[in-house]
C-alpha cells in the first residue's frame, strides 16, 4: 500500500499533462473559428472552448469520462449505442477464443513433453511463430470464413484462440518440465506410471507457469478480438466502435472505446490473478 | 481415397521424423522436416480436394505470387518495415532506455511509474492507432508513432528492472573505488542490465511489426503491407496476401534473429548464453 501515494502522484501528473495537451492541440480550431467570425477571444475563453468541443483533436479527460458514463450507465444495455453491449460482444468472443486456445495449448504442451519427435519438430516452430506478426492475417481469416458462410462469434474467436495458444503452450511446456530429477526419481522409486507422474507431480508443479502464461494469453486474446473486429463492415464490438469513430472523426467515441477496452483487459488480468492466488494458496504454493 | 493418400503421407513422414529424432546426429533435421510436412500436407489437401484459391491458395501459388510481385513487395516492405516499424522501434526503445535511466535515480518515481507501466504493457495499445493516424496523417509517421507507444512500456519496465540487477556487494565495490555515478552506470549497472534490456528489445520486435501493420488498416498511402493485405483481401487475391504474410514472417524472424545475435555477443558472460 506504500505505493499508493507515488502512483496517485504520477496519475495526477498524467491528467494534468493531458489537460494541457488538450488545450494546446484544440486551440488552433478555436482560433480559426474566432477569426472566421471576426471576433477576438481571450485566453480564458479559449480554455473553456477547447475543453468542450464536439470533435476535438484530443478530448479532455472529463469529456471521455462523461461519454463513458453516458454510454454505459445511462443507455439501455441492449441499445446499439451502449458500450456495455459492444463490450459484451467483444468479451464473449474473447472468452470463447481464450478457452479454445488455452485447451489446445495445454494439450500440445502435454504432447511435447511426452514425445521427443514432437518436441524437436514442433517447439522451434512454436517459438518462431511468436516472432511473426500473426495479427496481420486477422482480416484475411475474417473475410475467408465469411465467404465460407461462417460469421459472427466464431472467426473472431479463432484469432483470439490463435493468439493465446502459443504463450500457453510454451509456458506449459516449461511448467511440465519444472519438476527436477530428484522428484522424478522419487516417482520412479514408487513405480509410478507415466499417467500417475503426470497427474501427481508434473501437472501440480506446472501451475505457477500456467497462470503466468494465462495472464499473457488473456490480454493477447482481447487484442486479437479487437483487431479482428476492425475489417470489413463489422458493426458490433469495441473494435468496430474504434473503426467507425475513426471514419466519422468522433474522437470522443474512439477514446471511450479505448478506455472500455483498457478496463476490460485490466479486469480480465486481475480475475486470472485472483484465481491464481486462490489456487496456489489451496495447493500450499502461495508465498 | 484422397484422405488415405494424405494420411499415408502424414504417417510416413511422421514415422521418418520419429526415427530421425532418436539419433543426435540427425536431430537438427527434425524441425525442417516438420515444416516440409506441413507445407506438403497443405499442398496435397488443397490440390486433391480442389479447395478454391479464394479460401486457401496452395503454397506453390503463393511462391509464384511472391516471385512475380517482388517489386511491389519490396515497396511495401520499405514503407512498413523500414520507415514505419524500424524508425518507431529505434525512437521508442531509445526513449524508453533514457527514461529508465532518469526514473532509476528517483525511488519515488519508480514506485509510481512501474505499476502503471506494467499495467499499460498489458493493455490493447493497438487501439490508439486510429487516434495517431488522425494526428500524424496517413503516411509512415503515424505508424512510427503507434510503434513508439507500443514498444515504450515493455522496454521501460525491463530496463528499470535491469538497472536494479547489480547487487549490493558490486555497488559497494564501485564505491570503494570512488567511482562517480556516471562511472558506476557505464561500467557496472548498464552491463548487468543488458540481459533484461535484450529481453525488452526482443518483445518489442514483434510488437513493432504488429503495430506498423495494424495501424495501416486505419488509413495509409497506397503502399504498405497492411494496406496491401486489406485491399487484396477485398479483391479475394489471397495468394498475394499470403506472400505479404511470408514477407512479414521473414522480416519478423530476421529482426528477432538479429537482436538475439547481438545479445549473444554482448551478454556472452550470462549463464543463459553459456548453455
TrEMBL record, chain A:
Its main location: membrane. It is a multi-pass membrane protein. It is found in: Cell membrane. Residues 83-276 form the ABC transmembrane type-1 domain. The chain crosses the membrane at residues 85-110, 122-145, 157-176, 252-275. One of its GO terms (biological process) is transmembrane transport. Keywords: Cell membrane, Membrane, Transmembrane, Transmembrane helix, Transport. Gene3D superfamilies: MetI-like. InterPro entries: MetI-like, MetI-like_sf. GO terms for cellular component: plasma membrane. Belongs to the binding-protein-dependent transport system permease family. This is ABC transporter permease. It comes from Donghicola mangrovi.
Automatic annotation (TrEMBL), chain B:
It is found in: Cell membrane. One of its GO terms (biological process) is transmembrane transport. Residues 98-266 form the ABC transmembrane type-1 domain. GO terms for cellular component: plasma membrane. It is a multi-pass membrane protein. Keywords: Cell membrane, Membrane, Transmembrane, Transmembrane helix, Transport. The chain crosses the membrane at residues 81-103, 115-138, 144-165, 196-220, 240-262. It comes from the Bacteria. It holds the Pfam family BPD_transp_1. This is ABC transporter permease. It comes from Donghicola mangrovi. The lineage of its organism: Bacteria, Pseudomonadati, Pseudomonadota, Alphaproteobacteria, Rhodobacterales.
Amino acid at each position: 500500500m506504500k505505493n499508493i501515494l507515488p502512483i496517485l502522484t504520477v496519475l495526477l501528473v498524467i491528467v494534468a499533462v493531458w489537460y494541457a495537451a488538450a488545450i494546446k492541440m484544440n486551440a488552433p480550431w478555436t482560433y480559426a473559428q474566432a477569426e472566421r467570425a471576426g471576433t477576438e477571444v481571450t485566453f480564458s475563453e479559449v480554455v473553456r472552448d477547447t475543453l468542450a468541443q464536439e470533435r476535438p483533436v484530443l478530448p479532455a479527460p472529463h469529456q471521455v469520462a462523461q461519454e463513458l458514463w453516458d454510454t454505459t450507465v445511462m443507455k439501455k444495455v441492449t441499445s446499439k449505442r451502449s458500450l456495455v453491449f459492444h463490450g459484451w460482444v467483444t468479451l464473449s468472443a474473447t472468452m470463447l477464443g481464450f478457452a479454445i486456445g488455452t485447451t489446445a495449448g495445454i494439450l500440445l504442451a502435454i504432447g511435447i513433453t511426452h514425445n521427443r519427435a514432437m518436441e524437436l519438430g514442433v517447439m522451434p516452430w512454436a517459438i518462431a511463430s511468436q516472432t511473426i506478426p500473426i495479427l496481420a492475417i486477422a482480416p484475411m481469416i475474417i473475410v475467408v470464413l465469411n465467404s465460407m458462410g461462417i460469421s459472427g462469434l466464431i472467426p473472431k474467436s479463432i484469432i483470439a484462440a490463435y493468439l493465446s495458444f502459443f504463450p500457453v503452450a510454451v509456458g506449459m511446456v516449461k511448467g511440465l518440465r519444472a519438476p527436477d530429477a530428484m522428484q522424478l526419481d522419487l516417482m520412479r522409486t514408487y513405480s509410478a506410471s507415466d499417467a500417475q507422474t503426470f497427474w501427481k507431480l508434473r501437472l501440480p508443479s506446472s501451475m505457477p507457469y500456467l497462470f503466468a502464461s494465462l495472464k499473457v494469453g488473456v490480454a493477447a486474446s482481447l487484442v486479437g478480438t479487437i483487431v479482428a473486429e476492425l475489417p470489413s463492415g463489422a458493426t458490433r464490438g469495441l473494435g468496430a466502435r474504434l473503426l467507425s469513430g475513426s471514419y466519422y472523426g468522433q474522437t470522443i467515441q474512439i477514446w471511450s472505446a479505448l478506455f472500455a477496452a483498457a478496463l476490460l483487459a485490466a479486469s480480465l488480468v486481475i480475475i486470472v490473478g485472483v484465481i491464481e492466488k486462490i489456487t496456489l494458496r489451496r495447493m500450499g504454493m502461495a508465498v | 481415397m484422397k484422405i488415405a493418400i494424405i494420411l499415408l503421407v502424414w504417417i510416413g513422414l511422421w514415422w521418418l521424423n520419429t526415427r530421425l529424432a532418436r539419433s543426435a546426429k540427425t536431430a537438427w533435421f527434425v524441425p525442417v522436416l516438420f515444416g516440409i510436412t506441413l507445407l506438403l500436407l497443405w499442398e496435397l489437401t488443397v490440390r486433391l480436394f480442389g479447395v478454391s484459391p479464394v479460401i486457401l491458395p496452395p503454397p506453390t501459388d503463393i511462391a509464384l505470387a511472391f516471385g512475380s510481385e517482388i517489386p511491389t513487395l519490396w515497396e511495401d516492405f520499405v514503407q512498413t518495415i523500414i520507415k514505419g516499424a524500424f524508425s518507431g522501434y529505434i525512437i521508442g526503445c531509445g526513449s524508453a532506455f533514457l527514461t529508465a535511466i532518469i526514473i532509476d535515480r528517483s525511488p519515488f518515481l519508480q514506485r509510481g511509474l512501474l505499476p502503471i507501466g506494467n499495467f499499460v504493457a498489458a493493455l490493447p495499445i493497438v487501439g490508439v492507432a486510429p487516434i495517431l493516424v488522425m494526428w500524424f496523417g496517413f503516411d509512415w509517421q503515424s505508424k512510427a508513432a503507434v510503434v513508439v507507444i507500443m514498444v515504450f512500456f515493455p522496454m521501460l519496465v525491463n530496463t528499470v528492472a535491469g538497472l536494479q540487477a547489480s547487487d549490493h556487494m558490486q555497488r559497494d565495490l564501485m564505491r570503494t573505488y570512488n567511482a562517480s555515478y556516471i562511472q558506476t552506470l557505464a561500467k557496472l549497472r548498464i552491463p548487468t542490465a543488458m540481459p533484461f534490456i535484450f529481453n525488452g528489445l526482443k518483445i518489442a520486435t514483434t510488437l513493432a511489426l504488429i503495430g506498423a501493420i495494424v495501424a495501416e488498416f486505419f488509413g495509409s498511402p497506397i503502399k504498405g503491407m497492411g494496406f496491401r493485405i486489406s485491399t487484396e483481401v477485398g479483391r479475394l487475391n489471397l495468394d498475394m496476401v499470403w506472400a505479404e504474410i511470408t514477407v512479414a514472417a521473414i522480416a519478423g524472424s530476421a529482426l528477432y534473429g538479429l537482436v538475439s545475435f547481438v545479445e549473444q555477443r554482448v551478454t556472452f558472460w550470462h549463464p543463459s548464453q553459456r548453455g
